[in-house]
Design a protein that fits this description.
Elements lengths: L32 H23 L7 E9 L2 H13 L1 H8 L5 H9 L11 E6 L2 E7 L2 E2 L4 H8 L3 E7 L5 E8 L3 H9 L3
Length: 189
């Protein structure tokens, strides 16, 4: 089960179950072509559903994807990606189309994973293009206008290249909007 915002509810639950009632042959060998095909298809469906759930948050205006690459372990990459996605300040910056690399770096920093911030490169990606916003311990030379265009669509991809290894992980979430606060402030149980 996944949770979009850490607060699990029935509207952000996805379950996969099998009962063998279809009568299909069991795919038992992990090395088989059938197993690989099934795994690829299931992964694609689960990824698409996770993105749809994340981007469809209450009051959300965009899907935010945080991809941490070049990390020493998969687990550390996961922790860092989730820290960026769960950061309310990063989510608010994404809503405001603000290329505030400091909020992203801060979220990486309080994740509890050791890294050298002077070795990190931060990018925004959109439609196959990429803009570098932070490198060598400081802001990169980028156009604020161009960065705003990268952040203005229905989906934003933040890439943190850590330069520590080959592991990577991706997490999905959404921006934090006035409507989210209003919806949840007006809610009564």
């Amino acid at each position: 089960m996944i949770s979009v915002d850490g607060d699990t509810s029935t509207n952000d639950t996805f379950l996969v179950m099998a009962n063998a009632l279809a009568g299909n042959e069991t795919i038992a060998e992990e090395e088989s072509e059938d197993y690989a095909d099934f795994l690829e298809a299931l992964t694609a469906v689960c990824t698409d559903l996770a993105k749809m759930q994340a981007g469809d948050g209450e009051g959300a205006t965009k899907l935010v994807e945080a991809c941490v690459t070049g990390m020493d372990t998969k687990e550390n990459a996961r922790i860092l990606a989730k820290s960026v996605i769960c950061s309310n300040l990063t989510k608010a910056a994404m809503y405001g189309n603000d290329a505030n690399w400091g909020r992203i770096l801060c979220a990486l920093g309080y994740a509890g994973v050791s890294f050298d911030p002077e070795q990190v490169d931060l990018y925004f990606e959109k439609d196959g293009e990429r803009i570098l916003i932070y490198t060598n311990g400081a802001a990169a030379d980028y156009s604020e206008e161009e960065a705003t265009k990268f952040l203005s669509g229905e989906a934003v991809r933040i890439v943190a290249q850590m330069h520590m290894g080959e592991a990577e992980a991706t997490a999905w979430g959404c921006d934090l909007t006035y409507d989210y606060v209003k919806i949840n402030a007006d809610y009564r149980s």
